[in-house]
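name: query_chain
kind: protein
chains: 1
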Amino acid sequence: MTHHRHTYTSVRQVGQAVGRLLDALADSPDHQRDGLVTYQSAPNGRWQSGAHTCGTGTINTARSAGLITIQVTGRSSKGLSLTEDGLRVVRARQARKADGR
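structure:
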Protein backbone atom coordinates (compact mmCIF):
# COMPACT_ATOMS: atom_id res chain seq x y z
CA MET A 1 0.00 0.00 0.00
CA THR A 2 1.42 3.35 -0.99
CA HIS A 3 1.14 6.23 1.43
CA HIS A 4 1.03 9.72 -0.04
CA ARG A 5 1.98 12.57 2.23
CA HIS A 6 -0.42 15.48 1.85
CA THR A 7 0.51 18.74 3.47
CA TYR A 8 -1.85 21.65 3.14
CA THR A 9 -0.38 25.04 3.86
CA SER A 10 -2.79 27.90 4.26
CA VAL A 11 -2.17 31.25 2.63
CA ARG A 12 -1.53 32.82 6.02
CA GLN A 13 1.19 30.26 6.79
CA VAL A 14 3.19 31.08 3.66
CA GLY A 15 5.89 33.68 4.23
CA GLN A 16 6.41 36.56 1.82
CA ALA A 17 9.51 35.09 0.16
CA VAL A 18 7.85 31.70 -0.38
CA GLY A 19 4.71 33.44 -1.66
CA ARG A 20 6.76 35.42 -4.18
CA LEU A 21 8.48 32.21 -5.31
CA LEU A 22 5.13 30.46 -5.82
CA ASP A 23 3.77 33.47 -7.72
CA ALA A 24 6.88 33.63 -9.92
CA LEU A 25 6.59 29.93 -10.75
CA ALA A 26 2.87 30.19 -11.57
CA ASP A 27 3.43 33.28 -13.74
CA SER A 28 6.37 31.79 -15.66
CA PRO A 29 5.75 30.92 -19.33
CA ASP A 30 7.94 27.83 -18.75
CA HIS A 31 5.62 26.61 -16.00
CA GLN A 32 2.55 27.32 -18.08
CA ARG A 33 4.08 25.40 -21.01
CA ASP A 34 5.62 22.34 -19.34
CA GLY A 35 5.32 22.75 -15.57
CA LEU A 36 9.05 23.18 -14.93
CA VAL A 37 10.92 26.44 -14.32
CA THR A 38 14.72 26.37 -14.47
CA TYR A 39 16.62 28.41 -11.88
CA GLN A 40 20.34 29.12 -12.31
CA SER A 41 22.71 29.59 -9.40
CA ALA A 42 23.56 33.23 -8.69
CA PRO A 43 26.06 34.78 -6.26
CA ASN A 44 25.66 34.48 -2.49
CA GLY A 45 23.55 31.32 -2.40
CA ARG A 46 20.80 32.79 -4.54
CA TRP A 47 18.89 31.31 -7.46
CA GLN A 48 17.53 33.18 -10.46
CA SER A 49 14.98 32.62 -13.20
CA GLY A 50 14.21 35.62 -15.38
CA ALA A 51 13.57 38.61 -13.13
CA HIS A 52 12.91 36.51 -10.00
CA THR A 53 15.72 35.80 -7.55
CA CYS A 54 15.41 33.94 -4.26
CA GLY A 55 17.58 32.24 -1.68
CA THR A 56 18.26 28.56 -1.12
CA GLY A 57 16.35 28.78 2.17
CA THR A 58 13.20 29.96 0.41
CA ILE A 59 13.35 27.06 -2.04
CA ASN A 60 14.00 24.56 0.76
CA THR A 61 11.14 25.96 2.85
CA ALA A 62 8.71 25.68 -0.08
CA ARG A 63 9.87 22.12 -0.76
CA SER A 64 9.61 21.11 2.91
CA ALA A 65 6.05 22.47 3.02
CA GLY A 66 5.15 20.32 0.01
CA LEU A 67 4.51 23.34 -2.23
CA ILE A 68 7.17 22.62 -4.89
CA THR A 69 9.28 19.79 -6.20
CA ILE A 70 12.91 20.15 -7.24
CA GLN A 71 14.79 18.43 -10.05
CA VAL A 72 18.54 18.87 -10.37
CA THR A 73 19.01 19.75 -14.03
CA GLY A 74 22.74 20.54 -14.02
CA ARG A 75 25.70 21.49 -11.84
CA SER A 76 24.40 25.01 -11.34
CA SER A 77 20.73 24.70 -12.25
CA LYS A 78 17.57 23.15 -10.88
CA GLY A 79 14.03 22.80 -12.13
CA LEU A 80 11.20 23.83 -9.82
CA SER A 81 7.58 22.73 -10.20
CA LEU A 82 4.48 23.62 -8.23
CA THR A 83 2.68 20.75 -6.50
CA GLU A 84 -1.11 20.60 -6.22
CA ASP A 85 -0.80 22.20 -2.77
CA GLY A 86 1.42 24.91 -4.25
CA LEU A 87 -1.13 25.62 -6.97
CA ARG A 88 -3.88 25.79 -4.33
CA VAL A 89 -1.90 28.38 -2.37
CA VAL A 90 -1.27 30.44 -5.53
CA ARG A 91 -4.98 30.43 -6.39
CA ALA A 92 -5.88 31.45 -2.83
CA ARG A 93 -3.28 34.26 -2.89
CA GLN A 94 -4.66 35.51 -6.21
CA ALA A 95 -8.22 35.45 -4.84
CA ARG A 96 -7.14 37.43 -1.76
CA LYS A 97 -5.42 40.02 -3.98
CA ALA A 98 -8.54 40.30 -6.16
CA ASP A 99 -10.62 40.86 -3.01
CA GLY A 100 -8.20 43.61 -1.94
CA ARG A 101 -6.97 41.74 1.14
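note: Residues 25 and 99 are 22 Å apart (CA to CA).
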